[in-house]
Amino acid sequence: FAGAIRCGLENARFDWVYLLNDDMVVDRLALGEVLKCRSSFTFAVASQILVYHSRQPREETGYTFYRVVNGIIELDHRIPSEPALSERILYAGGGSSLFHRVRLIEFMGTRDPYSPCYFEDAEWSVLAWKHGYEVTVCPESQDRHRHRVTHQQLFGTREINRIFERNACRFQLRNALHGGSDRKLCLRLLELDAKSFRELCEWRQLIEVLRERARGYTFAYPLLGP
């Protein structure tokens, strides 16, 4: 996922780029509306996400936040108020959001710790917040999502779920958000399957964790919690 985005950024010609997954259907006004929400201190602006079929549950909305459940950080989307308003959010999804190109390149870096997918876009936005930039959602910019269509074809449900759980732990390891418990996270690591545990505890990954923790503590935390 990050590698594909990096290739696109190398060929982009403008200061702002809209990242779009192939399982998103873009409303005809979406790009025009999201462009109106830019400012000099914006890192990213997310589009509001709607379901592709009316019978589908609305699992993603673009209104992102995090909650703490027994010391564990959980990322989630909430249903917006009616009418939906523009708000500051935790992160802009990498499949339906406008990003400042230079800032995105900086916060992506050259490594892909979350390969192949999930949680990398959350880390980019958290780093942006720590550097003093903002991430918002534009409700007038709307995309319709066919949930996990691409990943199902590539990996299958069981492997997708494994990758998601592994990267959820990796995200908390790398990003010390308010309320998270390192002790509770270590206990959760012990509950993972053997493959995921090995991938998280590989020594290169642990060095990366220490580097990102040190990098994060350099900057002041904004109010990111719900």
Descriptive overview:
- Helix 3 (101-108) crosses helix 4 and helix 6 (157-174) runs parallel beside helix 8.
- A hairpin with a 2-residue loop joins strand 4 (64-69) and strand 5.
- The model has no long low-confidence stretch (mean pLDDT 90).
- Strands 1, 2, 3, 6, 7 and 8 form a six-stranded mixed beta sheet that branches. A two-stranded antiparallel sheet has the order 4-5.
- The protein contains nine helices and eight strands.
- By secondary structure, the chain is α+β, with helices and mostly antiparallel strands.
- It has helices at 2-11, 30-35, 101-108, 120-130, 149-154, 157-174, 182-189, 194-201, 203-217, and strands at 16-20, 24-26, 42-51, 64-69, 72-77, 87-88, 96-100, 134-145.
List keywords for this structure.
alpha+beta, globular, 9 helices, 226 residues
Quick synopsis:
With 226 residues, this protein is an alpha+beta fold.
| Strand percentage | 15-25%
Query: Low-confidence stretches at least 5 residues in length (pLDDT < 50)?
Result: none
Shape: globular
CA distance, first residue to last residue: 28 Å
The topology string of helices and strands comes to HEEHEEEEEHHEHHHHH
Number of alpha- plus pi-helical segments: 9
Number of strands: 8
How can the largest sheet be summarized?
6 strands, mixed
In which range does the helix fraction lie?
25-40%
Structural class: alpha+beta
| Overall pLDDT confidence | 90
Kindly provide the radius of gyration, computed on alpha-carbon positions and rounded to a whole number of angstroms. 17 Å
